[in-house]
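Researcher: I've got a protein sequence and the SMILES for copper (II) ion. Could you write out the 3D structure of the bound complex as structure tokens? I'd like something to compare against our soaking experiments later this week.
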Amino acid sequence: MPSQKSQTKIMLRTTVIASLLSVATAHQNFHQFWVDGVSPGYQVGIRMPLSNSPVTDVSSNDIVCNVNGTKVPSGVATVATKEGSEIKVQWDQSTHPGPITHMLYGPVDDASQATGIGAGWTKIDEQDYVDGKWANEIMSAVNMTHTFTLPNGLASGEYLLRSEMLALHAAQTLGGAQFYIGCAQLKITGTGSTNCSPKITLPGAYKASDSNIYIPNFYNGFNAQSYKAPGGAVATCAAGSGGSNPQPAPTSTAGPISTAAPQTTLTTKVSTTASSVPTSSPGGVALYGQCGGTGYSGETSCVSGAKCAKQNDYYSQCVPA
Ligand SMILES: [Cu+2]
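Model: Sure. Here is the predicted complex with copper (II) ion in place.
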């Protein structure tokens, strides 16, 4: 029978392990997103990191798309959307105080081949500390989700969407801030002809000693209300009028003015991802609905005025005839 002393030792050790575990489970990943209310599925379209641990070295390539996130080809599906679309991201539950930020990298020909390392990033969304709550608390109240819109005026092409939750609970120590990062791959149809600006270089834009990363007085007089997440201002993009959800912010006049009709599409390049229900009607599949592809067994004719066009082996879609 173990002595009183060794029992105490065992209990102590168990307590230490339990508390380490609870710290580990407090970590978080970006695990799902929705485009105009439709999700391609859990972890689909996202370069999932090897673990839910944070990146703390802001000068490493891991700051781009998390550990393993710059590996190409990525083997991850690219999800189709359009400028002005509403993107909802969902993260694992988090009690770590801090902001959420979204950046785009592109356009590129093939998002699955883009490492994201370098100067091609622009910030398109940021939530910091609002009405006494950090972004993670605000998200916690809505099932750990955060919603924003893609800017209008984007050039058509493929992009990386970088979601970052910066945890500041250890930011009072140099190198203590914890960056949780996940990158999704999007194919965006846009009306712009130029990129958004200003550009952000990753790694490079963040320094460990930046005043929004290293906050010595975080628990002692720090004013969260004036806090702004790293990466600078939210970008402006070339003007365009294609989206059905106009963005108030962009003011640039660099792009051509288009009168293209609003489009609603959500397609994925990989067969394992289809979770959207095809919209069928007596006259055929609705405009932009699915009408074919490997594994598809629904209606294959489109409503009048639309034709079924093959996007890839896995997806055919009704488009204007
Ligand atoms: Cu954690």
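Model: Residues 196 and 237 are 4 Å apart (CA to CA). The chain is about 10% helix and 30% strand.
Researcher: Great, I'll pass this along to the crystallography team.
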